[in-house]
């Protein structure tokens, strides 16, 4: 078929992979950091273009026929009526809109009204909350804002030469707070509610549609957000879930329909293939391991893992509820962590180490059960993050999750997903691929772990955790 490229513009860098369009084999790669502080709440979008240009030097894109763009999510690029930047882009890690998000939730009539309208309750990171913050804090800039884009939308528009048509995709749109994955339509009234007036919103393209073609004949696909691109790069399908182990955690699964959740625990995203990606977040994951390591005077998580494996399932009765920074799932924003089951025989470093791993994974299983309780099937779990390589995580996860666990080898999955989308759009444009299914690229190289005989033991550990959680926080997940 030819050669395609996937571009991932994250918070701190741009990665580009050039792939064979038929097989997905990586032919070349490029990388460049973004200028400035990657943790900054405001960014000049031009830095994304400069990084893109630097990553693509040395003839990296020679022979490429189509490009897909993935970018950081929840960013807001406000433009005036002429397409000029009103102010620096507000990016996803900007937390200044927390009060604005709470105001919005009440303005529409509460959490349930938002969940039914757009599949999620406003959060500080979402563009809809950033628009409210802009209206309240910088009213002159808000008044000048006539067009609202996200980072991947803006990059696609720039690559195409800033045409009159502005586009996005359903994956990125589903994170805005003013587009519904269930109805496939914008809610312009919510933009007006947040910003104070109407604004032009980009056209939402289907998964296999092209955003356009450059004057040189290079096809640019719809693009998408990083989460959706990574799911496409991993080759996720129905029955697959992703557990992400960062300082905080998340559980995301592929599902056939959007889920409205008035509790706010589920955020209903769309994916880049026509399916849906309901996500449940936890406030605590690896931070519980790091805190335990500090308590025990252990220098690394590898050492903590080795220590944990000296203990036995159930950690001699010790249970750690890892709600160190409050918790989002269940909704316990003002809670603290709890260590239960202390007896003389359990007061050993290896038992506390194991309780930390079991507590982290049981909390993520709670999040997974929120999805399962809504009819989401989970047969296979992809485990992502550096902590996924820890032996204690790999030993415990399959039995606690009750599913096969896949640990993919490290790779630029968002960039690979963007490239796969580009190959799909190119094939559809040429009539060689169906718009109903992406190209069948080889799946991610991975380690596969099975629960086997440990499943019953894992379920006993899980029951011990749930009993403790219900004793300390009765009814945290409702009846």
From TrEMBL:
Residues 4-224 form the Carbohydrate kinase FGGY N-terminal domain. It comes from the Bacteria. Keywords: Carbohydrate metabolism, Kinase, Transferase, Xylose metabolism. PROSITE patterns: FGGY_KINASES_2 (PS00445). Gene3D superfamilies: 3.30.420.40. The keyword Kinase applies. Signal peptide: none annotated. GO terms for molecular function: kinase activity; phosphotransferase activity, alcohol group as acceptor. One of its GO terms (biological process) is D-xylose metabolic process. The keyword Transferase applies. Residues 241-426 form the Carbohydrate kinase FGGY C-terminal domain. PANTHER family: SUGAR KINASE, XYLULOSE KINASE. Belongs to the FGGY kinase family. This is Sugar kinase. It comes from Streptomyces gardneri.
């Amino acid at each position: 078929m030819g050669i395609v490229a996937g571009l991932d513009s994250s918070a701190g860098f741009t990665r580009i992979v050039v792939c064979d369009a038929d097989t997905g084999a990586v032919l070349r790669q490029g990388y460049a950091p973004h200028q400035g502080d990657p943790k900054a709440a405001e960014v000049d979008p031009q830095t994304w273009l400069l990084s893109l240009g630097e990553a693509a030097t040395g003839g990296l894109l020679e022979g490429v026929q189509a490009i897909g763009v993935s970018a950081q999510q929840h960013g807001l690029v406000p433009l005036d009526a002429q397409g000029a930047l009103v102010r620096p882009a507000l990016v996803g890690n900007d937390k200044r809109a927390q009060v604005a998000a709470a105001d919005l939730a009440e303005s529409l009539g509460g959490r349930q009204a938002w969940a039914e309208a757009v599949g999620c309750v406003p959060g500080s990171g979402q563009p809809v909350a950033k628009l409210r913050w802009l209206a309240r804090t910088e009213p002159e800039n808000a008044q000048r804002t006539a067009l609202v884009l996200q980072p991947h939308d803006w990059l696609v528009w720039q690559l195409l030469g800033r045409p009159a048509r502005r586009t996005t995709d359903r994956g990125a749109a589903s994170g805005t707070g003013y587009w519904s994955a269930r109805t496939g339509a914008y809610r312009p009234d919510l933009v007006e509610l947040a910003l104070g007036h109407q604004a032009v919103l980009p056209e939402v393209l289907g998964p296999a549609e092209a955003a356009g073609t450059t004057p040189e004949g290079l096809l640019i696909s719809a693009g998408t957000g990083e989460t959706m691109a990574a799911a496409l790069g991993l080759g996720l399908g129905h029955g697959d879930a992703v557990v992400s182990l960062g300082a905080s955690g998340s559980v995301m699964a592929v599902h056939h329909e959007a889920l409205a959740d008035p509790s706010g625990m589920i955020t209903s995203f769309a994916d880049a293939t026509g399916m849906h990606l309901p996500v449940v977040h936890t406030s605590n994951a690896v931070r519980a391991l790091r805190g335990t390591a500090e308590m025990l005077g252990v220098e690394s998580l590898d050492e903590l893992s080795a220590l944990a494996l000296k203990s036995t399932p159930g950690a001699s009765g010790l249970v750690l509820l890892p709600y160190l920074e409050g918790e989002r799932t269940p909704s316990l924003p003002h809670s603290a962590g709890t260590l239960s089951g202390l007896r003389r025989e359990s007061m050993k470093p290896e038992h506390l180490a194991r309780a930390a791993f079991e507590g982290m994974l049981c909390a993520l299983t709670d999040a997974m059960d929120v999805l399962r309780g809504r009819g989401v099937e989970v047969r296979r779990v992809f485990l992502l993050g550096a902590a996924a390589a820890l032996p204690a995580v790999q030993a415990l996860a399959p039995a606690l999750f009750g599913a096969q666990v896949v640990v993919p080898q490290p790779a630029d999955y968002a960039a690979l997903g963007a490239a796969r989308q580009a190959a799909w759009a190119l094939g559809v444009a040429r009539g060689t691929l169906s718009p109903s299914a992406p190209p069948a690229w080889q799946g991610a190289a991975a380690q596969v772990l099975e629960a086997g005989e440990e499943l019953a033991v894992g379920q006993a550990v899980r029951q011990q955790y749930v009993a403790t959680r219900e004793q300390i926080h009765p009814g945290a997940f409702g009846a």
